[in-house]
From TrEMBL:
<dbReference type="Pfam" id="PF07727">
    <property type="entry name" value="RVT_2"/>
</dbReference>
<dbReference type="InterPro" id="IPR013103">
    <property type="entry name" value="RVT_2"/>
</dbReference>
<dbReference type="InterPro" id="IPR043502">
    <property type="entry name" value="DNA/RNA_pol_sf"/>
</dbReference>
<protein>
    <recommendedName>
        <fullName>Reverse transcriptase Ty1/copia-type domain-containing protein</fullName>
    </recommendedName>
</protein>
<feature type="domain" description="Reverse transcriptase Ty1/copia-type">
    <location>
        <begin position="4"/>
        <end position="131"/>
    </location>
</feature>
């Protein structure tokens, strides 16, 4: 008879989550509506936040005594290892500059492990992860048994997976390259492999790049939305890109292929904008849950006047009547004053590097403006 869950069983993680959830609630914590793995207790100066990832925890509060109290409460039931101030979690390094009131996250050690894993320590660095105009298509997939056999010896999935963890953690600048590489996991060709290695070579001189948050800029959320129309030559699907910014730097970013083919650049931008609005609505809920309720609407910066007009005009438009009704979710959120659209010229569209390959000069500029750069280099 099995009386308790054993480590490694498929039920174990759920049982553990139910156990720690019950204990945190007994300590007065409540899970956030927007994210059940974020717990809060108290308000204002006494507020304490616990972020849970399986059995790793981050505890945040303005009061050191509150943090000590939470640690003691958890230690009453579980054996814990107190690592002090958060410096490293889930492969992400955390740095602080208390004088400047900035904090930064990066994955320097993990990046170095990728470079070493794929034998690029002595390679020539690349200036960009994806050059402008480069196309990766199904036409580049292996066509002969000889090439297919050769490609089987290449750890392509491992390469893309390694880069994806980095892109999701602290490196939005490689997100679009990783999104394009991910399309060929089933049957990668030599060109796809070379493109992946090029991303690794880009990391050679940017391994200490991370994201820097400026506490002086406050917690008012803003976002950038962009799209690259019909950029995929195989099926002409467009790429959506978004950045959600807090304290002057990205907290959410996405680079994804749209699910349907857009018939115009306006439609592509509108579909991208819809996804961005959904993320903003969720982030506003999460910020409210942790005591950072937003004042007024969240500004979303868009560089397509047609998409903005479509979002604000509830009248009938023959040229856009085919657009799926789900994308008109944007209009509802504009009317309810949850989001507000503002025009930004393309050169200052920070989400541009999330949709396509761009020049190294433009990439560096947009990264600098987004506070994505070498440790504690900011645009301020």
């Amino acid at each position: 008879m099995l009386l308790q869950s054993l480590y490694g069983l498929k039920q174990a993680s759920r049982v553990w989550n139910e156990t720690i959830d019950k204990h945190l609630k007994s300590m007065g914590f409540e899970p956030a509506d927007a994210d059940p793995c974020v717990y809060t207790r108290g308000e204002g100066e006494d507020e304490c936040i616990v972020c849970l990832y399986v059995d790793d925890m981050l505890i945040a509060s303005r009061q050191k005594a509150a943090i000590a109290s939470v640690k003691a409460g958890i230690a009453e039931k579980f054996r814990i290892k107190d690592l002090g101030r958060a410096r490293f979690i889930l492969g992400i390094e955390i740095d602080y500059d208390m004088e400047r009131r900035t904090s930064g996250i990066s994955q320097n050690a993990y990046t170095e492990s990728i470079i070493k894993k794929f034998g690029q320590e002595n390679a020539k660095p690349c200036l960009t992860p994806l050059e402008p105009g480069v196309q990766l298509t199904k036409a580049d997939e292996p066509q002969t048994d000889e090439v297919k056999a050769k490609m089987k010896s290449k750890p392509y999935r491992s390469l893309v997976g390694s880069l994806m963890y980095l892109a999701c953690g602290t490196r939005p600048d490689i997100s679009v390259a990783v999104a394009k590489l991910s399309r060929f996991l089933e049957n990668p060709g030599e060109k796809h492999w070379d493109a992946g290695i090029k991303v690794v070579r880009y990391l050679l001189k940017t391994k200490d790049v991370g994201i820097v948050y400026d506490g002086l800029l406050g917690t008012q959320l803003e976002a950038y939305s962009d799209a690259d129309w019909a950029g995929n030559r195989d099926d002409r699907r467009s790429v959506s890109g978004m950045l959600l910014m807090l304290c002057g730097a990205p907290v959410v970013w996405r680079s994804t292929f749209q699910k349907t083919v857009a018939l115009s650049s306006t439609e592509a931008e509108y579909m991208a904008l819809s996804d961005c609005v959904k993320e903003c609505v969720w982030m506003r809920r999460l910020l409210e849950d942790i005591g950072a309720e937003q004042v007024g609407a969240t500004v979303i910066y868009e560089d397509n006047q047609g998409a903005m007009a479509l979002a604000k005009n509830v009248g009938y438009q023959a040229r856009t009547k085919h657009i799926d009704i789900r994308y008109h979710f944007i209009r509802e959120k504009v009317v309810s004053n949850e989001v507000e659209l503002e025009y930004v010229d393309t050169k200052n569209q920070l989400a541009d590097f999330m949709t396509k390959g761009i020049s190294s000069k433009t990439l560096r500029y947009l990264m600098m403006r987004s506070n994505v750069g070498h440790k504690f280099e900011t645009s301020n």
